[in-house]
Amino acid sequence: MKFGMRWFGAQDDPIPLEYIRQVPNVTHVIGALFDVPVGEVWPMDKIIALRDQIEGVGLKFELVESVNIHDDIKIGGPKRDWAIDNYIATIKNLSAVGIKVICYNFMPVFDWVRTQLRHRLPDGSYTMAYQDALVQGTAQETMERMNANNTGGHKLPGWEPERLVHLQELLEAYAPLGAEGLAENFKYFIQAIMPTCEQYDVKMAMHPDDPPKALFGLPRIATDAQDLRRIESFYDSPYNGFTLCTGSLGENRANDVPALIREFAGRDKVPFAQIRNIKFTSDVDFHESAHPSAYGSLDMYEIMLAFYQAGFDGYARSDHGRDIWGERGRPGYGLYDRALGTSYLSGLWEAITKANR
Ligand code: DNO
User: Fold this and answer.
1) pTM here?
2) Ligand 1 center to residue 158 CA distance, Å?
3) Which of 63, 132, 174, 196 could form a disulfide with 101 if both were Cys (CB 3.0 to 4.6 A apart)?
4) Cis omega (within 30 of 0) for bond into 16
């Protein structure tokens, strides 16, 4: 397991790369270009500049999170083939600097959704939470409530204001698709890009839906084992894989996360793992918790053991951290708690690895 940390770039991330370098067991930075409009080709000069920054502090740049998918690819709109050609060009450019994995998602309209971005825990730390009862009214109303709920001045991925201006239009475009239509459009996309991924040795790692259920009447195609098997079936190759996000999948109580890991990592379909814990506060409501098992509803030892037993040798990162020690980070992406998470997870990994030698 090679540990990395996500970084939002010098412009947008208050955490200097030099600090990431100081986190024990972190060897990789998971980066992206955040200023290229979705659908456009990522230019070589910008990719090289990002790589040079990361390598300049002694870290490696082998994963990108995310190259986002243009809405016309998901909807099957008029610019679909243009956007796919550009996606292919981006894959080739990323391969040229040694990128091995691209994390992406196929969620309609929004990336992950929470109802509270700053939920206070009894120990005085702040975390993100999801309460079904607060997903009320239109998506716009829910979003405004959530944004009003503290982004700390940061843009949230998938909730960019310039995109949300067209929210109603987007929602209407997705409405007639249904999960079947969205899956068909996914199939068209994955089959178009896979030959390039295989030729250029870049693995696609689809992030599951977060939360793993339909919201605002929008279709979902990556919520559970059955969904993931269908995604595999559209193009069966280690290059058509998943970002196994323990938190996202774990937000549905019916998902057995260690079993999902054994199945999909065991079939070499998990190039990238995002590992975090969540604490259920009802059947469907939860808040994100500190990483150790004792603080959440997921057993992190069982999760790390499942990766080990599946023969996992891919990339991993601790996922969302709380705001602790007075830090006011990007929601989910402060330094301190993610660093604690990495320490804990890499400690579990060392212990499991050595105990099984
Ligand atoms: C949330 C992240 C997601 C993820 C995208 C992948 O914190 O895990 O935003 O990066 O869904 O495209």
Assistant:
1) 0.96
2) 9
3) 63
4) no
Q: For the stretch 196-230, what's the b/e string if a residue is b when 16 or more beta carbons lie within 10 angstroms of its beta carbon?
A: bbeebebbbbbbbbbbbeebbebbbbbbbeebbee
Q: What is the pLDDT of residues 108-153, one digit of tens each?
A: 988 888 988 999 999 999 999 999 988 877 887 777 777 666 666 6
Using CA of residue 346, residue 344, residue 302, residue 213, what is the dihedral sign? negative
Q: Which atom of ligand 1 is nearest to the CA of 6?
A: 10
Backbone angles phi, psi at 275, to 5 degrees: -120, 115
- Ligand 1: residues with CB < 6 A are 65-66, 103-105, 111-112, 157, 207, 245, 274, 320, 332
Atom of ligand 1 nearest to the CA of 107: 11
Name the token pair of 111: 């990336």
Cβ–Cβ contacts within 10 Å for residue 95, how many? 17
* Distance separating the N- and C-terminal Cα atoms of the chain: 15
Residue keyed to tokens 């691209």 = 102
Pairing of strands 286-289, 240-245: unpaired
Separation of CA 292 and ligand 1 centre (Å)? 21
